[in-house]
Amino acid sequence: MRARAAPFGLLLLFASADRAAAADADVVRPLPPVWLTDARGARFRGRFDPGERLILGAGAEMLAGGVSGLTAAPGLAIEFGLLLRDERPAPGWDVHWKRNHEIAQLRLHPAAGARGAAIEGALYRGIFLRQSREGTLTLPVTPPLALPLPFDVGLRVTVGRVHGALSPEPGGPPIDAGVFDGEVLADFWRSRQPGRWLTVGIGGRYEVGLRRDDAGGLLRDHRVSPMSTLALAFHSERADGLAAGGVRAEASHRWSSVRGWELATRVDGDVEVTPLAANDRPVALFAVVTAYSAPDLPRPELRAMAGIRLSQPLR
Fold this sequence. Notes:
Strand content: over 45%
Shape: flat
Structural class: mainly beta
Largest sheet: 12 strands, antiparallel, barrel
Number of helices: 1
Number of strands: 16
Distance between the termini: 52 Å
Low-confidence stretches: 1-27, 68-72
Radius of gyration: 22 Å
């Protein structure tokens, strides 16, 4: 009974998302004004764009599991990055690509455990969602065939993803270097508002794991996921940009040059709230949680970080 209920629940979730998308497909709600004026005539910023800014953050982190074990006390972590994205669809649009770019968004963990510093992030990550007013995908045949779709289609691309020790030491934790990661996406939310999606993705990737043995020799572990990674992602934000958050879960059935076929899983969650602004620059409180499990780690790794994020709006 439960086995049949789970797929049925997913169908209900996607159906409700499709109904919400139908209400959102033809009407793009106006955004709040960027600049406001108080009773004294002073202008101040009332809306921020979380997807168009430079960021610099710092906070406390806790690391459990992995190779280094459980840290005795919270450590310091810092982050930085550049976020860019397109404007909303122009009036009278037929097809629009919703693009989100993350450039050199990295988190540095100077005291990740007994074995030293760690790094987390990617040199580039992009999400490209194709939105059609008619909700169709046209096949270039003769005559052309328009297929109605209950979702938007898109791509997710990651280049230069890194996770693990900043400098592997003998007997210490590894560093995973992702060369390329690509996914084909179906967006069931189909929202025309920026920063909102509910996607299911199937993709492939190639990464290399680097570690040093007790003698200091460098060991390489090549890992390939041949379109055998499944990911679910949800992200949303307020129209004024003062709150945003999301969650992403993925499972990858990959081939390792050291261990053969194996399963790796990862869950990421984040939330950000902006309670104030200093000189029209947002000062936000944020929290990030990552859970990672893979056969090359003796135990699953759980990392949590909370802190303050400063931003320079670019729009």
